[in-house]
């Protein structure tokens, strides 16, 4: 066969393979789009809470067996699906990939759906990232335009003042910290130092699990670093106090009605009372008919030797699909107030989220430790295996996706997305 015939044969073969690749790519994109819709529906209707998953990304990584980074992308697209309907429609129709829409959902400003949906039809993921970097950053509210007819009232500037504000809702407490640049630089350096230490531990854990999607711990965040910074200061202060104790939580419990309250504080729910008595430095005072009977043991923390044995046995949070390895609590399988002993057979390592979820009834952890059973809100046994199985339905019927053109972008011709100013009110 001549060289011309060989080249023609290879070209025809490549065309056939590319055609199949385009078909499979479109089907894969459409499947990812349907997964996004399912995750968005579960978040919208509050269904995730009964599964025992810490977050939407954790649920996706657990139940689909994908990597944490891909699960974060799926969760990000699901979270902003209503803000980017055209981009999500392109994903559902197989025209856009999850990575393309994920970059947009994770970084794009509100109101830019039409702009980036058109750009994603031809741009690669790297080009979309560049386009998003070129977009103007939103101005802080303090720099917003004011009424030009208003008379300015200059006030003396006291200089930057540190401040801390706190807000709470039913699930979370939010702290807003405002620091001058000098103090902020010190805080940033300390925060980054603790995050580097957490990441070093995370890498060791990731190598231990070999990158398995359902066991690999999530990458430590700045919130984790902030908590580590708090704990470090707390431990340093505790070492200087008599007997090396931490701050003690004092709880008053009525032995007749099993009603507990904080010292000079509000009543506690059954879940919070059992949570505090499980693995915390907690001083419990027993009362009957308003009279103090005496104090219980002043601490529920596990000693170092028992903690090491527990960590060697469980290694991670015992809740299937979790895999958390940092900040784990030693949970009493039979509650301390019910006579549960602080011994290895009655203890299990759980992450803070699942520890509270158990005491609130969202999941159930039953022992002894060698016969551990974990069930969800409906009583279904939880397993670390993903839901993947051989398909029984045909793939989605969508148009083939040939992908972006991949041509060199001429950025001097590109017009970045610019948010429209709100209409003025006369």
From TrEMBL:
InterPro entries per UniProt: DUF222 (IPR003870), HNH (IPR002711), HNH_nuc (IPR003615)
Start-end of Acidic residues biased regions: 143-154
Region (Disordered): 136-168, 382-405
Domain of life assignment: Bacteria
Pfam families associated with the record: DUF222, HNH
Entry's Gene Ontology molecular function annotations: endonuclease activity; nucleic acid binding; zinc ion binding
UniProt keyword annotations, A-Z: Endonuclease, Hydrolase, Nuclease
Domain named HNH nuclease: residues: 305-356
Entry keyword annotation includes Cell division: no
Family indicated by similarity: Belongs to the Rv1128c/1148c/1588c/1702c/1945/3466 family.
Protein name as catalogued: DUF222 domain-containing protein
UniProt source species: Mycolicibacterium rufum
